[in-house]
Design goal:
Bound molecules: nicotinamide-adenine-dinucleotide
CATH architecture of the largest domain: Alpha-Beta Complex
Number of strands: 19
Strand content: 5-15%
Number of helices: 29
Distance between the termini: 38 Å
Strand order of the largest sheet: 12-11-10-13-14-15-16-17
Number of domains: 3
Largest sheet: 8 strands, mixed
CATH topology of the largest domain: 2-enoyl-CoA Hydratase, Chain A, domain 1
Oligomer: single chain
CATH superfamily of the largest domain: 2-enoyl-CoA Hydratase, Chain A, domain 1
CATH class of the largest domain: Alpha Beta
Helix content: 40-55%
Length: 715
């Protein structure tokens, strides 16, 4: 029996109910066979009035099988193309049946699932938030190559179709209806298939209902073809804007725009062939492998709790105490209250605590203004935050997170004085960005309940939290921190204790290499531009201005006092630059009146001229590719060292942490995945070359040589 159930009723309507092996319907070999046989049957069917495409699963159809896509061999792109063509040919047959075909969308129809809907003449969906509609392939390094780009373009026109595809939008039925991506909705599941059948009966004599607009004579694409004069602006500015946004690093986005432009000028069959060719090129490209690995498999692994101790029961946080209502504390308070957690926000004065609470008030007011929230809900969230200067208000908190100044003595002091207010079995988290958790825990009477919960700034926007396990931290504390981070809808990575943990330590190499380049005489604008050209969100000098050079100076001072200054590498040059800037020239960074850049009244910025006097050497000789690789390899090598030494507990934590926490270029799949597709032998050779030219900091970690020998990817 086929996994596509085939039922014909007395009205001559055939309902195909997809019920594939496994939890979801997906585009794999089993689908291919079932669809092919179904098409043979439908084409031979006598007295056919129409076809309903339905699903027996919770998800309507899940799209391409990502395991297959991951395995797609670049050396067999032609074989891949032929398979895709065969699959698309059956979809085209369904589209060309001389009777109306309706999709009854009962669950998510994303990617290949929505491409299946696109070949139908009518799309009706259950109006429920579990039903998501869209083409999110670009977010995984792919593009809708099963006809999605061509049909969306023909249906909506180039200008309207592109944002849905390029931005990987997922829409609930109401929004999909408004966008013209579906034709109708029903309120209950029971009404769904009957509604599809009713539409077929109402349209059985309507010729147009049995054909796609693009297959009818005289069809004109909405908005016109891209080479029509009125699309001149779009044809010129579209690629420019895309390049500006993606810096040319996402081949799938370029392919989408290219195929959409061509589809607007060509007949559907030709356009589908071009799309298939491009799809084979993109799907077998390293970027697709990187993005599928990290954004699908590894992110799912993390979200499913792979790094959480299994045998500890879930324990939601009910009342969180936050010490320090500064930049970080106020953000943590907001994120916690937004998730319904009671918050005690404590600072040294009532005024400082109130100021911290006012931050939430400001963000909530913005939400109200944008129509994302009503006043009552905002008031309810705000009432969860108790701003105070009294330690005793912390009584009964099941979690306290300290976010006071980065000073070990202060942190020790407040641990000793406030720990007593924790509920029995309560836990203590430190938001320190640099101090070792094991050392901070020394002040605690229960170091097993002490853990690092490292947020990123701005807390309300940044999706990642780095959880740091100290030497004495228990599984129960780890589970508590993990659950809390998920409760506030952020992604937790878990790392072992080390100076700078994983993210700060790796990120600092980006800044450190920029300092080396500066001192060698490279123009600062060139350093920042090349950093951005890698796909890093901000150049290394600019980002240090933002996070503050003064902070770097303070951290270096603290570490020197603790005697851990050069624990993971020689930072002498970076310290010299910070010293030159902050101590000798009073350039502490953006919020200290300027740093590497000068910030002007009109919001613009320019390189601080003194910086050129300090280091710039017009004769300094260096190729762009070397500069780029130096900025990238330092971070990759540091990540590998973290993996090698056990600071990173998994490859997934390293990849997700590097992208969400440090800003690693998404197309690389993160700093560790980068090596998988760069190629081990090539990576080792490049490290050797850079070592010879620029020093030992580029030495290839042994772990890469081990993987090269075994041939095993970092997974
Ligand atoms: P901040 O200076 O903005 O805020 C610190 C707050 O702590 C101040 O409001 C201060 O009044 C308060 N405070 C000082 N002593 C206190 C006490 N005894 N009890 C209660 N409150 C007290 O600092 P921040 O940028 O929010 O950083 C706080 C912590 O978070 C630091 O450990 C820092 O390393 C860490 N961190 C900062 C960032 C960042 O980007 N700023 C990122 C991650 C982690």
């Amino acid at each position: 029996m086929s996994v596509f159930k085939y039922e014909k009723n007395n009205d001559g309507i055939v309902t195909i109910t997809m019920d594939m092996t496994g939890p979801v319907n997906a585009m794999n070999q089993e689908y291919h066979q079932a669809m092919h046989e179904t098409m043979d049957k439908l084409e031979a069917e006598e007295g056919l009035t129409g076809v309903v495409l339905a699903s027996a699963k919770k998800v309507f159809f899940a799209g391409g099988d990502l395991n297959d896509l991951l395995a797609a061999d670049p050396s067999d792109a032609e074989g891949f193309r032929q398979n895709t063509e065969a699959m698309k040919a059956d979809l085209r047959r369904l589209e060309k049946l001389p009777v109306p075909v309706a999709a009854a969308i009962n669950g998510a129809a994303l990617g290949g699932g929505y491409e299946l809907c696109l070949v139908c003449n009518h799309r009706v969906a259950w109006n429920h938030k579990a039903v998501q509609i869209g083409l999110p392939e670009c977010s995984l390094g792919l593009f809708p190559g099963g006809g999605g780009v061509v049909r969306m373009t023909n249906m909506l026109g180039v200008e309207k179709a592109l944002p849905f595809i390029l931005e990987s939008k997922r829409l609930v039925p109401e929004k999909a209806l408004a966008a013209g991506m579906i034709d109708a909705t029903v309120d209950t599941l029971e009404e769904l298939v009957p509604a599809a059948k009713a539409w077929i009966l109402a349209n059985k004599d309507n010729q147009d209902a049995a054909s796609q607009p693009w297959d009818r004579k005289g069809f004109r694409i909405p908005g016109g073809p891209i080479n029509s004069p009125k699309n001149g602006q779009l044809a010129m500015m579209g690629p420019t804007m895309l390049h500006q946004k993606t810096r040319g690093l996402l081949p799938q986005a370029i392919a989408v725009m290219d195929v959409a432009f061509q589809a607007s000028m060509l007949d559907v069959d030709t356009a589908l062939r071009i799309e298939g060719r491009e799809f084979a090129r993109i799907a077998t490209n390293p970027v697709a492998k990187n993005m599928i690995t990290t954004f699908f498999f590894q992110l799912n692994q993390i979200n499913a709790g792979a790094s959480r101790p299994k045998d500890v029961e879930k324990s939601p946080t009910r009342k969180v105490g936050i010490l320090g209502a500064g930049m970080m504390g106020q953000g943590i308070a907001y994120s916690s209250a937004m998730s319904g957690i009671e918050v005690v926000l404590k600072d040294i004065s009532q005024e400082a605590a109130d100021k911290g609470k006012a931050y939430s008030e400001k963000l909530l007011a913005k939400r109200i203004k944008r129509g994302q929230m009503d006043e009552a809900k905002a008031g309810q969230i705000l009432s969860l935050i108790n701003a105070t200067d009294q330690d005793s208000d912390l009584q009964g908190c099941d979690l306290i997170i300290e976010a006071v100044f980065e000073n070990i003595d202060l942190k020790h002091k407040i641990t000793k004085s406030t720990e007593q207010y924790l509920a029995d079995d309560g836990f203590w988290g430190s938001n320190t960005s640099t101090l070792p958790i094991t050392q901070l825990a020394e002040a605690s009477s229960k170091p097993e309940n002490f853990i690092g919960i490292h947020f990123f700034s701005p807390v309300d926007k940044m999706p990642l939290v780095e959880i740091i396990v100290g030497e004495k931290t228990s599984d129960a504390a780890l589970a508590k921190a993990f659950d809390y981070v998920q409760q506030i809808r952020k992604t937790p990575i878990v790392v072992n204790d080390s100076l700078g943990f994983f993210t700060s330590r790796t990120f600092s190499t980006y800044l450190d290499e920029a300092a080396n380049l500066l001192v060698e005489g490279i123009h600062p604008a060139r350093i920042d531009n090349l950093g951005r050209s890698l796909g890093m969100p901000v150049g290394p000098l600019q980002v240090q201005d933002e996070t503050s050079l003064e902070l770097s100076r303070k951290a270096a001072e603290t570490w020197a006092e603790m005697g851990v200054q050069d624990k993971w590498g020689d930072g002498a040059i970076a310290r010299k630059v910070v010293d030159d800037m902050v101590v000798k020239n009073g350039r502490g960074g953006r919020h200290h009146g300027g740093g590497f850049y000068e910030y002007h009244q009109d919001g613009s910025k320019s390189i601080w001229p003194g910086l050129l006097d300090l280091y710039y050497d017009a004769e300094a000789d260096n190729q762009d590719q070397d500069i780029r690789d130096r900025l990238m390899f330092r971070q990759v090598i540091e990540s590998l060292k973290c993996l090698e030494s056990g600071v990173l507990r998994s490859v997934a934590d390293g990849n997700i942490g590097s992208i969400f926490g440090i800003g690693a270029p998404p197309h690389t799949g993160g700093f560790i995945q980068y090596v998988n597709t760069y190629g081990f032998a090539k990576f080792i050779a490049r490290c050797e070359q850079l070592t010879e030219r620029y020093g030992d900091r580029f030495q290839c970690p042994q772990i890469v040589r081990d993987h090269a020998a075994s041939g095993e990817l970092f997974a």
